[in-house]
Amino acid sequence: MLDIIRDFVRRHVGGHPVGDDEDLFATGYVNSLFAIQIVMFVERDLDIAVKGDDLDIGNFRSISAIHQFVQMRAPASA
Amino acid sequence: MTPKVTITLEEPLAGAAAEEFGRRIYFATGDILDFRFVTRDDLVTAVDLTLAPTGHPETVTRKVKAILDNDVLAQLIRPPKVIWSSPTAVEISDGTFARLRERGEVFPAGEGQVSLGPAMLHLMDALDDVVRGIVIDELGGIEYRYPTLISARTMHRCGYLTSFPQYLMFAARLHSDLDVYQRFVDDTRAAGQLVPNVLDRCSDVDYCLPPTMCYHTFAQYADRELPPGLRTVTAKGKSFRHEQKYHRGLERLWDFTIRETVFFGSREQVLTRRRWFLDRILRLLEQLQLSGRCEVANDPFFGNTDVAVSSSSQRLLELKYEIRLEVGGGRDIAVGSFNFHERAFGTAFAITLPDGETPFTACTGFGLERLAYAVACQYGVEPDAWPDHVRAVLGPNG
């Protein structure tokens, strides 16, 4: 799962190296519209609904944060 | 005869989404005279529209549904995230605008246009003096006064023409030609009023009325390196937004005054100054004991494919904070906003920092009529009747 997320992020940062804990929006490689692309990626590609209070940038700010959110919300069988 | 049409929603809309929809319906077409939400269990299930005689129900329905699908349903909407609530609640009776009108302090001059009398003027100036003082004395800002007209080129460069077409107000003038002038004078005399379709006689629009002050600031520093040390610029000026039928008293004007402040710098510098200024203003509101809150908000992008993504990302990344103050009758109004633009305007206007990097920018804007009106609603306009904590800040010797 972590590799899928890393791959998604790297495809959107123009090949720049990005650490798992790095704040994606402070890197300057992406603009704010990327936040919505991450949410769409989590919902559509990873099949995890992002509802209500989950729609918080803290869940999508870095590769680690996305991973942690996905782990927390993924069905137990996955 | 006024045709009516009911549009039943496929999925009921909850609070925040319904508000977002309600803010856009009149912009669907001028043929909508009035609308009313049909609700069930606090959810909007349909909208009843009253149309002008020229309105075709099918065409209007298509336009309203397009706005619903493109601008509202495609957004990731949740109830606004509140980051500050006033510790005091002021008892506010409704009807302040009517009372101000009775005592000659406000005079409706046209659609979304209100003339102000001496007490309201004093209040607006006193509030602006306080905000301006913070920007200049505490943030080291420098002040400019801009012309009212703003070039259409600047309005295009900042993206306004394609993001907010519904608000645009153009400054047109007759085509410079003796024959055009003479025919215009003759036709106006004959008609006894301004001739219809006057724009057919005008030259292309190269100036607009500005919707805010910060575009003037970006144009001022366009295509060059920022002067060393320049970080904060402030300006006050008349701003114009065509609010269609949404205009209401002093709560929503087509023609109003903004005190706007722009920050330039690195991402960290700009975000730090925006937060510092926001906290400073929230402390001021607490000192004045004004009733309201501050929440994450989004701009009313309109009518293009990027609306949903732009609005959603603004909220998700907390690019915009809005201060809302209560005005009675259960209503509140946005009196100020604190906006982070990333590098959007630095890039669009080819501005550079002395180190060659493109600056990040933020701006804060206060609608001075709204701010004054909110104070008037909560404490009145008579300095002698104000409690000490208000008189100390806004009174003649404040």
From TrEMBL, chain A:
Q: What Gene3D superfamilies does UniProt report for this protein, alphabetically?
A: ACP-like
Under SUPFAM superfamilies, the record lists: ACP-like
Top-rank taxon of the source lineage equals Bacteria
Cross-referenced InterPro entries: ACP-like_sf
Q: What is this protein called?
A: Acyl carrier protein
- Source organism per UniProt: Micromonospora echinofusca
UniProtKB/TrEMBL annotation, chain B:
Lineage, top ranks: Bacteria, Bacillati, Actinomycetota, Actinomycetes, Micromonosporales
What InterPro entries does its record include?
Answer: aa-tRNA-synth_II (IPR006195), aa-tRNA-synth_II/BPL/LPL (IPR045864)
Source organism per UniProt: Micromonospora echinofusca
This one is known as Aminoacyl-transfer RNA synthetases class-II family profile domain-containing protein
Domain Aminoacyl-transfer RNA synthetases class-II family profile as annotated: residue spans:
102-396
Superkingdom in the source lineage: Bacteria
Q: Which SUPFAM superfamilies match?
A: Class II aaRS and biotin synthetases
Which PROSITE patterns does the protein's record reference? AA_TRNA_LIGASE_II
